[in-house]
Amino acid sequence: MSATLTIRRPDDWHLHLRDGAMLAAVLPESARHFARAIIMPNLVPPVTTGAQAAAYRDRIRAALPEGARFEPLMTLYLTEETDPDDVASAARTGLVKAVKLYPAGATTNSASGVRDFERIRAVLERMAEIGLPLCVHGEVTDPDIDIFDREAVFIDRVLDPLRRATPGLRVVMEHVTTSQAVDYVTSADRDLAATITVHHLVINRNHILAGGIRPHYYCLPVAKRETHRRALVAAATGGDARFFLGTDSAPHLDAAKESACGCAGCFTAPIAVPLLAEIFEREGALDRLEAFASLNGPAFYGLPTNEDRLTLTRAPTPVTFPAKIETAHGPVTVFDPGFPVHWHAS
Ligand code: NCD
Ligand code: ZN
Q1: CATH classification of the domain holding 226
Q2: Of the listed 248, 287, 308, 336, which one is catalytic?
């Protein structure tokens, strides 16, 4: 079968670009297919103030390839010291589009995250007032909670109480991995949405652990069992406007992934859009791809949809993607879905 599909250019509502040599290497991969992306602030040190976000935005713009049109949508890393006035002024100028909540210790570079949720109350109330979304890494960090249960427990113990205590707060539950999260988002009002990654639509926990440990499939939240993956596919392809694409493309050097204590993160940027088309085709849902990748996100964030278009073409033979990209400090492995992808994007 050969087919083409033209959609509004997609946006990535959750992306790690890093900094320096890594930024230079990975940015072209996102700028090729995406018009905009919500840029995660978990640098070392984290992007916690409006001034730091402006400086990071400028470094991203400076690293763009000649002629590329790509708009970084900046976020602030929420700490217990975050100043509500700084958040409000960074939002007012349009610099910052969301604030990111990491429970302390939940994932890569989250040590400065939140321990005591009472201490962020004033910031959350101000965000609810001005309509600035909170992006949430939804996992508890309690060592007594099994890693496969951390998202579901977070909903009950943290997210639901936090949303009830802050009426009107707009929340994006990031990179959801469980049917519990899908159900929670579906049952909530319009102030709650969720991003879904491409890799969580492809892998379940067997891909990481059965037949040998596959470090390049390890990310947080960790992929769950197959029933959960199916729930995510149903949510992404089902047409509910509260679900949209956030790749969570999170590059780490191979040396840091292939290690006795490997880093969490899947680098999907080079393959994300073609692979997403393949997944939607398999589900008979190509007519819903544009909503998930290009329409639902801007609608939630109150931003215009892209006027520019992206054409997807299905090739009769599989498309080849690089297995790795090179950076000044070493290679980064590209996510391998383990099945052929037939879609080109241009
Ligand atoms: C992300 C990273 O490497 O920064 N890792 C990941 O596994 N997704 C952080 C995050 O989004 O959790
Ligand atoms: Zn992430």
Answers
A1: 3.20.20.140
A2: 248
The number of beta carbons lying within 10 Å of the beta carbon of residue 61 is: 13
What is the pTM for the complete model shown?
Answer: 0.98
* Residue 55 parent element (H or E): helix 50-63
Residue 177 Cβ < 6 Å to ligand 1: no
The backbone region for 259, taken as left when phi is positive above 0, alpha when psi lies in -120 to 50, beta otherwise, is beta
Query: Is 248 an active-site residue?
Result: yes
- Number of folded domains that form the chain: 1
pLDDT in tens, 157-211: 999 999 999 999 999 999 999 999 999 999 998 899 999 999 999 999 999 999 9
Per-residue pLDDT tens digits for 114-161: 999 999 999 999 999 999 999 999 999 999 999 999 999 999 999 999
Ligand 1: nearest atom to the Cα of 42: 4
Structural domain range at position 116: 4-345
